[in-house]
Write a structure and sequence with these properties.
Blueprint (H helix, E strand, L loop, with lengths): L2 H6 L4 H17 L4 H16 L10 H37 L2 H9 L1 H39 L3 H26 L11 H29 L5 H35 L1 H4 L10 H31 L7
Helix pairs in contact: 4-8, 4-9, 4-11, 5-6, 6-7, 6-9, 7-8, 9-11
């Protein structure tokens, strides 16, 4: 099989159902070059970023149904990316809570300004997620009560239960780590650290999955999905701002207080520079995921009629 055939598999299913046979027939008559394969690859990327182009031949009802489903998935993906971004942001907050970093922010304007931008961006992102997500959550509750599908209500309660479990685990670890208790110093810090991180990640993953599943199985009015797109844009922009500010914060710290940047004052006594780099990478990945999903959501929104159902 030629490389072009493999590249065609990267296209969305709706696009392949409509155009694949035509492109394959063209490739049979005129085999492509390496540049043609590159063009096909970027065409696949464009097809994923602009999925409404693959639905132009569908009937109006089917196209609307497909685009609304895509818009819902895009919004949920942005929400998932935001939760991952929040975990990275929590790591940054843990990194900078030491007195040395607070002093560096007060003494050096670039470090302080970038840190303040992180705080402002986090506040804006939280507000926009609440603004876009709360009406959808209320719609899920209404749909569950109307259809008597009470499992959706339980799914919405999962984040509360998971957070309570995380708090109980944290309090238990703090109690076991009290000075009166004498664990083997060689392994107890490693053990407690991994229990704490594993519980936090598990709570975040389970909570996010439960909320997404509840939204996916509920009837959400089209107008709410349309409305949620604007807060999602602001959320994604806030994530990009925080990413940039966090990156600048590290560069500013490296230039202003290199001994602190190269120290072992990072999370759990690890390298500060490596902790910062991991946080930036995690923020970059989640922000890129949010941007891609936002582009797909805007594409789906643009294919919908101007008057919602």
């Amino acid at each position: 099989m030629s490389i072009e055939r493999y590249v065609l598999r990267l296209y969305p299913r709706a696009w392949r159902q409509r155009y694949e046979e035509e492109v394959l027939a063209m490739l049979e008559d005129c085999p492509g070059s390496l540049l043609d394969s590159v063009d096909l690859f970027f065409g696949a990327l464009d097809a994923h970023l602009h999925p409404h182009l693959g639905a132009t031949g569908l009937a109006l009802y089917e196209r609307m149904k497909q685009m609304l489903s895509l818009l819902r998935r895009s919004l949920l993906t942005i929400f998932c990316a935001y939760i991952g971004f929040i975990l990275a942001g929590a790591a940054f907050q843990k990194l900078t809570e030491d007195a040395n970093f607070k002093e560096a922010a007060q003494m050096h304007s670039l470090v302080g300004l970038s840190f303040n931008l992180v705080v402002i961006g986090a506040f804006v992102a939280l507000l926009t997620v609440i603004a876009g997500g709360l009406p959808i959550v209320l719609a899920v509750i209404k749909s569950a009560l109307t259809q008597k599908r009470y499992g959706s209500l339980f799914l919405l309660a999962v984040p509360i239960l998971a957070f309570a479990l995380f708090l109980c685990t944290t309090f238990l670890l703090e109690a076991l780590d009290a000075p009166a208790n004498h664990f083997a110093p060689v392994w107890h810090m490693f053990f407690f650290r991994n229990i704490f991180i594993s519980t936090l990640l598990a709570a975040a993953i389970v909570s996010t999955g439960a909320v997404c599943f509840a939204v996916a199985r509920s009837e959400i009015p089209e107008k709410l999905l349309r409305f949620a797109l604007l807060p999602s844009i602001l959320t994604t922009l806030s994530m990009a701002l925080i990413l940039l500010a966090t990156f600048v914060w590290g560069l500013g710290l490296r230039g202003s207080v290199p001994q602190l940047f190269n120290s072992n004052d990072g999370m759990f006594g690890t390298s500060t520079s490596l902790s910062w780099l991991r946080i930036v990478i995690a923020m970059a990945i989640t922000t890129a995921l949010a941007v891609i999903s936002l582009i797909r959501g805007i594409s789906a929104h643009s294919a919908l009629p101007t008057t919602g159902a």
